[in-house]
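Changelog-linked ticket: flavin-adenine dinucleotide example.
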Amino acid sequence: MTTPTQHHPVTVVGAGLGGLVLARVLHRHGIEAAVLDLEAGRDARTQGGMLDIHEETGQAALRAAGLYDGFRARVHPGGEALRVLDKQARVLLEQKDDGDGGRPEIDRGDLRDLLLDSLPEGTVRWGSKVTGAEPLGGGRHRVTLADGSTFTTGLLVGADGAWSRIRPLLSEARPAYTGISFVELDLLDADARHPECAELIGGGMFFALGDHKGFLAHRETDGSLHVYTALRAEEDWLSTVDFTDAEGSRAALLERFASWAPALRRLITEADGPLTPRLIHALPVSHRWRRVPGVTLLGDAAHLMSPFAGEGANLAMIDGAELGQALAAHPGDTEAALAAYEAALFPRSERTALETARGQETLFHDRAPQTLVDMFSSFAA
Ligand SMILES: Cc1cc2nc3c(=O)[nH]c(=O)nc-3n(C[C@H](O)[C@H](O)[C@H](O)COP(=O)(O)OP(=O)(O)OC[C@H]3O[C@@H](n4cnc5c(N)ncnc54)[C@H](O)[C@@H]3O)c2cc1C
């Protein structure tokens, strides 16, 4: 006797912020989804990083998810402070967190926990790596996991990030290198162990820019400093550095900041633990696809962009919320729901991808950091 193939009416691939908001909004409307994630469990990886949550996207999504109050309770006070410096460590712009709460900051891990805790037990199937999916006709798909098992689904949502396994069902686009490489580092227990660095960074966001590179940093809720050193560099530069060699990789990075102020170089010399390389990729600004029955994308899978407008997580969440609402508003007509969702998704993604590309230009411009100071001044005006 053969075992019948398992069937999920709604499958979400990826338990990132976008996939989780979708599952939560569907749950609020009485629609249960199976969420698959390749991670071994919710604590398999530290989430790290602060996110500022924007009113019209991330905050709107949290309202739709019924989690706005829970979010406000987890906001990091003071996190909206801002400092902009040049490569000589001269402060060009300094803003205190005035507490107006327009772009409240939250720890990514806290936000993810809020969403995970809002879903019925077992919604997220950890340790489920999707390796591919094929159409079966009539909008149904067969999904294959890394352990060789398969199941069928009536609606397949690719919420599986930059290197989505679902995207090829809809589009041939692949993320391309943006020309910017990051090396990430942390300074732990900064007030006690790295007091000069802690004072330099301040209470919130920090930029030190020049020569088409810079330090983008943030004070985290656990008292550590998270620093992205960012450079315009050849795509293969990071692969020429051995990041398993802590001293060697530090020296290679310091060489790139040779003419920078000692106070800024100290962020590299005092870094705790290994340095982490990261290439920044993006999908084409106007990435979109023709409607294919029974499948769609959200978040980075749909519109991967560089982090220079701080919108990626915000967009993933509003995508998830709007897709959930569209499905709830079109019971029994998945195609109408997907068409309505994508009609709003495509122009929003394009608009933000353009803004992000402008953000990248601003940060790595010949005249940076003045370009960034001008940008913040124009917001204030
Ligand atoms: C350095 C950096 C800084 C950033 N800073 C900000 C910021 O300040 N503000 C902001 O809004 N955005 C920021 N972003 C962007 C933001 O992180 C992403 O846009 C956001 O996480 C996208 O969410 P998502 O749910 O679409 O995908 P992801 O968060 O990537 O989640 C995808 C999920 O899918 C799972 N998955 C992947 N492949 C498979 C598979 N084959 N099978 C099963 N599961 C799979 C993964 O394990 C993961 O849990 C930053 C990005 C970077 C790189």
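Closing comment: Example verified and attached. The mean pLDDT is 94. The pocket of flavin-adenine dinucleotide is lined by residues 13-19, 36-39, 51, 129-130, 159-161, 165, 182, 228, 278, 299-301, 307, 310-314, 316 (CB under 6 Å).
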